[in-house]
Design a protein that fits this description.
Layout (H helix, E strand, L loop, with lengths): L5 E3 L3 H6 L3 E3 L2 H8 L3 E12 L2 H11 L12 E7 L27 E12 L11 H7 L6 H9 L17 E3 L7 E3 L2
Antiparallel strand pairs: 1-2, 3-5, 4-5, 6-7
């Protein structure tokens, strides 16, 4: 099994057309970018109605690239077209049927998704905030790309961690209140 070499670029389209280079590890990507990098996935190009149309678009987008990216870092994904998936059906017992007739499936489109190393300074500002705060304070719905990015980012604290409390079997030293003594 060979290792995947990911492009280093500021966005998904640049990763397809003109990356800064290609790197196997974050350390190598940081050398190419000259700053810390983050690993991200981004959907590029317009939505396509069929998989074949998405493959043609991918061929057009990567045609002018000096070194095309590894095909393993590019995926064609089928996503809902602006609509949310239907809610789960609730069982009912009417007319000898347990489940209602299913609703028609929502319309889907095909998108090109690229995995790449992005310089940290080029990350969208919304992704630098804590996901919980953005979700609660956002005036409009977040895009699926932003929600997907939030799910892959590390957890961040709301505020700095407070000093730990004194345990059940610990007491402060009378002569030095900063020191804890075990109490048995």
């Amino acid at each position: 099994m060979s290792a995947l070499i990911y492009p280093v670029a500021s966005d998904g389209e640049a990763a397809l057309r003109a990356p800064l280079g290609q790197a196997l590890r974050a350390r190598e990507a940081e050398i190419l970018a000259g700053e810390p990098v983050i690993f991200c996935s981004e959907r590029v190009g317009p939505p396509c109605p069929t998989r074949e149309a998405a493959q043609d678009l991918l061929a057009q987008m990567s045609a002018g690239a000096a070194a095309p990216p590894d095909p393993a870092v590019i995926r064609l994904v089928e996503v809902f077209d602006g609509a949310r998936p239907p809610p789960p059906a609730r069982p009912l017992a009417e007319g000898g049927r347990r489940w209602p007739a299913p609703p028609p499936p929502p319309r889907t489109v095909w998108r090109i998704q690229v995995d790449f190393w992005r310089p940290a300074s080029r990350a969208p500002a919304i992704l630098n905030a804590q996901a919980r705060h953005v979700r609660k304070r956002a005036q409009s719905d977040l895009s699926g790309d932003h929600l997907s990015a939030f799910s892959r980012q590390p957890l961040r604290p709301v505020r700095p961690q407070q000093p730990l409390d004194i345990g059940l079997f610990e007491v402060r030293a009378p002569e030095d209140p900063d020191r804890l003594l075990p109490d048995e």
